[in-house]
Write a structure and sequence with these properties.
alpha/beta; 9-stranded mixed β-sheet
């Protein structure tokens, strides 16, 4: 495997200062496309942030420590996923270990595309390390096309966009990846992210 360093460090948010940075970048990112009446609530921790089985990721600039991106990962090992408040999962997911990624947020810096890719690598690595069966995400239009390109599929084929309580009741698609199969799928598709996700060591990623 080749080795590649990023101009930022990606790790778990652990301290109060880390969590303040998570909130700051989360609010700034969502305020760009949501009305203040909705995005304003993101200036404070959400109930899901405090649940057992939840991990907050934080990407920080190596230059000055400023926050560049964040993602929240919740597993269903202790409590149901947040999306299950308003979306019943199909029977084939019963008894499976699931991890839902929410509150993805990045800055508008030049590195934003790399930060977003790094956050998804961290999500994938987290799922591999903790024995997760399926990665689950919710995606609004047109961002769902990005997930399709990563080979995410609809949990319920043809279900389309559904209003979901944990994402402000806005219409989202519910999509998934099979953690144990996706590497083979990326290889078969000669996916452009394959080398980044599977064949490159990133010392800047510290789960």
């Amino acid at each position: 495997m080749r080795q590649e360093y990023w101009p930022f460090e990606l790790r778990t948010a652990a301290s109060r200062e880390d969590r303040d940075k998570v909130l700051a970048i989360r609010h700034a990112a969502y305020a760009r496309h949501l009305p203040a009446s909705l995005s304003g609530a993101l200036q404070q921790p959400e109930a899901t942030d405090r649940l057992e089985g939840v991990t907050l990721l934080l990407a920080e600039s190596s230059l000055d420590g400023s926050p560049l991106g964040t993602m929240r990962i919740q597993t269903n090992r202790l409590v149901p996923l947040a999306l299950e408040q308003s979306y019943p999962l199909p029977s084939w997911m019963e008894g499976k270990a699931l991890a839902e990624a929410t509150r993805l947020a990045v800055t508008q810096e030049k590195t934003s595309r790399l930060v977003k890719a790094a956050l998804f690598k961290a999500y994938y690595q987290y799922c591999l390390q903790t024995g997760i069966d399926y990665m689950v995400i919710t995606a609004r239009s047109p961002l769902d096309r990005q997930y399709e390109r990563m080979l995410f599929k609809d949990v319920v084929p043809g279900a389309g966009y559904q209003p979901l309580a944990h994402v402000f009741n806005l219409p989202h698609r519910v999509m998934y990846l099979n953690v144990k199969q996706v590497r083979r799928q990326w290889e078969e598709a000669q996916h452009p992210l394959l080398e980044f996700m599977c064949y490159t060591e990133h010392p800047s990623l510290k789960l």
